Amino acid sequence: MGRPCRQLEAAAARAVLGAADTLLFDCDGVLWRGDAAVAGAPGTLARLEAAGKRLCYVTNNSSRTRQAYADKLRRLGFPAAAPRQVFGSAYCAARYLRQALPPGAAAYVLGGAAPLDPAVRAVLVGFDEHFAYAKLCQALRYLLRGDAACLLVGTNRDHRLPLEGGAAIPGTGCLVKAVEVAAEREAFIIGKPSRYIFDCVVSEFDIDPARTIMVGDRLDTDILMGNTCGLTTILTLTGVSTLEEVKGHQESDCPARKNLIPDYYVDSIADLLPALED
Ligand SMILES: [Mg+2]
């Protein structure tokens, strides 16, 4: 049986939220779009927090710090969040490299060409709007160096970042792919749908997957990660993915696509508000 992807009406929402103690939120397309909060979203999170839920923020964006996310949440009127509630792919990549590399080893972060540093034991590919052929060359030189194994790590595979009005810019996935093709090997991916980013949350908080909800706007990252990790998944329609896409997955015979179907959907997370009022 596939997941039903039912609209989460107030009565069901009360039960679903009641059975959860932690909610993980993707940010862009869920809490805000660009620099404007989704209408009703700050109030919804305030009620969730007042109801004793633990809120965490899980984002593939690698270009902002935990503190920057905490600041943006406050600026847009969301309940105050501590930086440790924020799990971005840059923070989690740093954590991964700290564990995977020997002490004193360095990483080449796609960001600047320089003489080869003998301490480099990893190439990390994140969002880089100044990506250039010279950096690709530098990354390949490290990855081909024969004297030591060099890890290849990507913050995420998002291939496109949507802008308002149907426009888009190429995402980090394009840069990861370029390095992978050059190096003829696959990168280890930190962000959603990789479960590594969820493991980071688990390592810092006492999380029971059966009592955790993942709320996201993308089927191929947020929902896939939530389903893979055994979480309850809610798709919100204020961002990238549509019910048409869900339908396509439901009608497909491909078993892998079943993991892209959420348990529930809402038009906006503000729809959860009635379930939180008594
Ligand atoms: Mg999103």
UniProtKB/TrEMBL annotation:
Sorted UniProt keywords: Cell membrane, Cytoplasm, Hydrolase, Magnesium, Membrane, Metal-binding
Transmembrane segments: none
Binding site for Mg(2+): 26, 28, 217
Gene3D superfamilies: HAD superfamily/HAD-like (3.40.50.1000)
InterPro entries to which the protein is assigned, alphabetical: HAD-like_sf (IPR036412), HAD-SF_hydro_IIA (IPR006357), HAD_sf (IPR023214)
Cofactor: Mg(2+)
Primary residence: membrane
Subcellular location: Cell membrane; Cytoplasm, Cytosol
Single GO MF descriptor: sn-glycerol 3-phosphatase activity
Protein name: Phosphoglycolate phosphatase
Species this protein is from: Crocodylus porosus
Gene: PGP
